[in-house]
Amino acid sequence: MRIARFSYNEVPQYAFVQKDETDGKDYLVALEGHPLSPQGVKPTGKRYALDADGIRLLSPVIPSKVLGLAKNYDNRSDEELSASSEVLHSAQDMVIFSKPSTSVIGPDDPIVIPAGDHNMNFEPEVAVVIGKIARRVSVDHAMEYVLGFTCVNDVTLTDCAGEDPMWTRAKGFDTSCPLGPWITTELSWNDARISFKLNGENVPEAQGTTARLIHNIPEQIAAISSFTTLLPGDVILTGTPYAAGSLHPGDEAIVTVDGIGSLRNVVVSE
């Protein structure tokens, strides 16, 4: 199931995204209610084409907080992995950062480089959307608290990261957390393929799979929920296969996760 948040003539609402068997196109089936509420949702009977006038996809969720893991992707080759005895799964080794809710934007929203001369990187990732209150959950039960998954570009100001050991400015500025295009409730999360296009060209270094995460998704949920309560709608950024690609004004950035879809944003100057 795919759950989108969209606006029709500037009125936000939720929808199921369904493929029409006749023309093969995706349509928004408008919903009454909120997918994270105990009452759930029900169809309104209205359906919209994704490219219909007045339709705009929004960030699929507005989280109370966004938490992410840095340095959580093993880029070693298969040969290097097989030759190494190094174990990288200690929870004490997790590097966890946060982004405020004001950093979140949706599909096609502009990524705004803050005023000043900044170096900005793209980081394509799978994002986890929490579906119910999670506090001190175990690894074995962690996935029971997940609503679904979406694409994210964990945009980072690398010059600020070097100046600020907490990365608050580097990762928390407005528009630094594009999410979308929707939430997918079913995904092969332990081997989801990630890719990235910059100005229409594939970036081979930015391709990867969640199978190469050092700390997998259940481990991340368990570790994060051990010190902070995760609320419905909260988002976890799981780790990127590539954190060295630069973005500049005018660039088009597209994150794709197989089984979810593609998230597109364009970079502009403040």
Describe the overall structure.
Mean pLDDT is 93; it is low at 81-85. Strands 1, 2, 3, 4, 5, 6, 7, 8, 11, 12, 14 and 18 form a 12-stranded mixed β-sheet that branches. Strands 9, 15, 16, 17, 20 and 21 form a 6-stranded mixed β-sheet that branches. The chain folds into 2 domains: 2-57; 66-269, Fumarylacetoacetase-like, C-terminal domain (Fumarylacetoacetate hydrolase, domain 2). It has 4 helices and 21 strands. The longest helix is centred in the last third of the chain and has 9 residues, at 217-225. It is mostly beta strands. It has helices at 78-83, 158-163, 168-172, 217-225, and strands at residues 2-8, 11-19, 26-33, 41-49, 55-57, 66-70, 95-99, 104-105, 111-113, 120-122, 124-130, 146-153, 156-157, 177-184, 193-198, 201-202, 208-209, 235-237, 245-247, 252-257, 261-269.
